Amino acid sequence: MELTVAITGASGTIYAYRTLQLLAASGAVKTVNLIMSSVVPIVAQVEMGANLKDADTKKINEWLGLDEDSKLIRYWRLDNFAAKPSSGSNKQEGMIIVPCSMGTIGSIASGAGTNLIHRAADVTLKEGRKLVIVPRETPFSSIHLENMLKLSQAGARILPAAPGFYHRPKTIEELVDHLCFRILDQFDIPHSKKTQWTGEEVKAGE
Ligand SMILES: Cc1cc2nc3c(=O)[nH]c(=O)nc-3n(C[C@H](O)[C@H](O)[C@H](O)COP(=O)(O)O)c2cc1C
C-alpha cells in the first residue's frame, strides 16, 4: 500500500509522529509520501523539542527511530508541485493530514490551494480516494465548521484530534495511540487493537 501523510502546523505533532511509527510497524505500507508545512519545525520544537528544520528523508528517519536505510518514508518538499502526490496518475490508497490546521482546511475547502499539501488533498478528493483529516483547534468558529462540512460532503473523513478515555489511558502515549489507531482503522491497517471497544455490561452508577 502507498499513502501520503501530511503534517501541518496545528498543535499535536506527536499524533503525526506516532501515526508514522505505527504505519512503519504495521508492515502493511510500502511507501509513505511525507509532506510537512513550513510551520511544523516550530510546533515540533515547541511541543516535542524536535529539530525538523531543513528536513529530508534521513532526518525524518532519525526522528522516528527508523533504520537509516528504511525505504518507507519518501519526503517531498512543500513547494515541489512535481512531486508524486501532486498527480492523480500516481495510484495510491489515500492521504492522511495529521494534525490538520484550520488554515490548511480552509485552503483545501476553497479549492485554491497554494502548496503541495493542498494540491495532494485536492487530487485525493478528485480521484475519489480516501482523505482522512485530523483537525485540531478549540473552540471551532462557524468558518471552521463550515469548511469541515464542505470537506466531509466532498468525501473527506473528518477524524478530530479528540481521543476517547474508555480504555482508561495512564500515559499521554496511550491517549495519543488511541487516536492514531483510529486513523489506521480508516485504511484497515493492522495495529495492536489494545483500545478497541468490545462491549461491556455496565449499568449507570456502577
Ligand atoms: C505552537 C503552535 C501551535 C498551533 N496550534 C494550532 C492549532 O491547534 N490549530 C490551528 O489551526 N493552528 C494552530 N497554529 C497556527 C498555525 O500553525 C498557523 O495558522 C499556520 O498558518 C498553519 O499553516 P499550515 O496549515 O500551512 O501548517 C499553531 C501554531 C503554533 C506555533
Report on this model:
Helix 1 (13-26) crosses helix 7 and helix 4 (102-110) crosses helix 6. The chain has helices spanning 13-26, 40-48, 57-64, 102-110, 116-126, 142-153, 172-185; strands at 2-7, 31-36, 73-76, 94-100, 130-135, 157-158. It has one domain (2-185): 3-Layer(aba) Sandwich (Rossmann fold). Strands 3-2-1-4-5-6 form a six-stranded parallel sheet, sandwiched between helices. The radius of gyration is 17 Å and the shape is globular. The mean pLDDT is 95. 37% of the residues lie in helices and 15% in strands. The protein is α/β, with parallel strands linked by helices and 206 residues long. Residues 8-11, 37, 39, 42-43, 46, 101-104, 136-137 line the site of flavin mononucleotide.
Q: What ligands does this structure carry?
A: flavin mononucleotide
Q: Order of strands across the widest beta sheet?
A: 3-2-1-4-5-6
Which H/E pattern describes the elements?
EHEHHEEHHEHEH
Structural shape: globular
CATH class term: Alpha Beta
Low-confidence stretches: none
- Mean pLDDT comes to 95
Percentage of β-strand residues: 15-25%
Termini distance?
44 Å
Structural class: alpha/beta
Q: Which CATH architecture?
A: 3-Layer(aba) Sandwich
Task: Give the biggest sheet.
Answer: 6 strands, parallel
